[in-house]
Write a structure and sequence with these properties.
heterodimer, A: alpha/beta, Beta Polymerase, domain 2, five-stranded mixed sheet, two-stranded parallel sheet, B: alpha/beta, four-stranded parallel sheet, 6 strands, about 15% strand
């Protein structure tokens, strides 16, 4: 087979020919073709990209979430897929609403999504429906919060030496010790 | 006669009554002296303080000069738990189990800011000092401390070991201390 060089236009055209005009916010930050899709189509698109004879997006480089508390759809899942044979990268985004946000699992397409989805659940509380083992992976098992959500403070809440009263100041109303 | 003068010094005998052919002293003083000069440390090194500890054990600083030549990588044979580095909350139960596996009498040094207080990692995932889960005898400050500081920490432990009452580990205060950490 003759070696062809994939272009962003070719990839986008192939996707639009197969799935119609469902790709929005098409842009190229840092030179990577990026598009937003809907959550009911994302797994079909990933499977299509993975199995496609020419595209061959066989590696899921990354899967993560972003929290946008000010938006209507508060969570965004970002998929980075890589076609090793074409040296081509593609970024797909899905906006999610609801609490907890839910999205179908990508483990049926990429086995490597298993731990990535567990990590995303661990830090953002996103439910990946159909995941074979959706439990915490990095944080302690009895943690009750999803620490990367913006409503939770970065600081450890067991520390007592940050209490303003210990420095002769009026207590900061934003500082709420949990103990 | 030997031409090289030996610079090896002999440990001074504890205070006692000496006469022709006999020497009498307290049992706890002799045991304290023996224990103090044969502490087997268990290095629990998780980050950069562990690198400083490697220098402390190596030839220039040589912790072996103080009777701690032999590191014990089994907690069951160790006297001194040296915790060096950031302890994540997920590591906490592991550290506690290692401590529980050590036989009495046992001592603990927290080396560096992270082990002592969480250090710069004021974060939801990091234990804010190992004294939240196990009792600590000596804290070594620094980020990371130099080998001289780690050696000084060991010498402070030696002071504790030499002067500890043989009954301390059976005292109600000590049992209450362990109970406050939930350690049987």
């Amino acid at each position: 087979m003759e070696k062809i060089t994939l272009t962003k236009e070719m990839v986008l055209q192939t996707l639009q020919n197969n799935f119609g005009n469902i790709f929005s916010n098409i842009e190229e930050p840092y030179g990577i073709l990026t598009a937003t899709v809907t959550k009911d189509k994302i797994i079909d698109i990933l499977a299509f990209l993975n199995k496609h004879e020419i595209l061959q997006f066989q590696m899921l480089t990354d899967l993560c979430a972003v929290h946008f508390p000010e938006r209507d759809k508060k969570f965004q899942i970002v998929y980075h897929v890589h076609s090793l044979s074409n040296n081509f990268r593609l970024r797909l985004k899905v906006d999610l609403d609801g609490d907890p946000p839910k999205i179908p699992t990508a483990t049926i397409v990429y086995a490597t999504a298993n731990w990535m989805e567990r990590e995303t659940y661990d830090f953002y509380g996103v439910i990946f429906e159909g995941h074979p083992n959706l439990k915490r992976i990095l944080n302690i098992d009895d943690m009750v919060i999803f620490p990367m959500r913006k409503e939770y403070p970065l600081e450890d809440n067991t520390r007592t030496d940050k209490d303003d009263r210990m420095f002769g100041r009026e207590p900061n109303p934003l500082f709420k010790p949990l103990i | 006669m030997s031409t090289t003068a030996s610079n090896i010094t002999i440990e001074k005998a504890p205070a006692g009554i000496e006469g022709a052919g006999f020497f009498a002293t307290g049992f706890d003083k002799v045991i304290g002296m023996a224990r103090k000069n044969s502490i087997w440390p268990l290095p629990f090194a998780t980050s950069c303080c562990g690198i400083e500890f490697m220098a402390t054990m190596a030839s220039t600083y040589d912790l072996g000069r103080f009777g701690s030549e032999r590191l014990s990588f089994s907690p069951r044979q160790a006297d001194l738990l040296m915790v060096m580095g950031t302890i994540a909350k997920k590591m906490g139960p592991v550290l506690k189990q290692v401590y529980e596996q050590m036989a009495e009498p046992r001592w603990v040094i927290a080396v560096g800011a992270c082990a002592s207080s969480g250090g710069i990692f004021d974060s939801y995932s990091v234990l804010q000092g190992i004294d939240q889960i196990i009792p600590v005898d000596v804290y070594v400050p620094g980020c990371p401390p130099r080998p001289e500081q780690i050696i000084d920490g060991l010498l402070r432990v030696q002071d504790l070991v030499a002067n500890e009452s043989l009954r301390r580990r059976n005292s109600p205060e000590y049992k209450a201390l362990l109970a406050s950490y939930g350690i049987k």
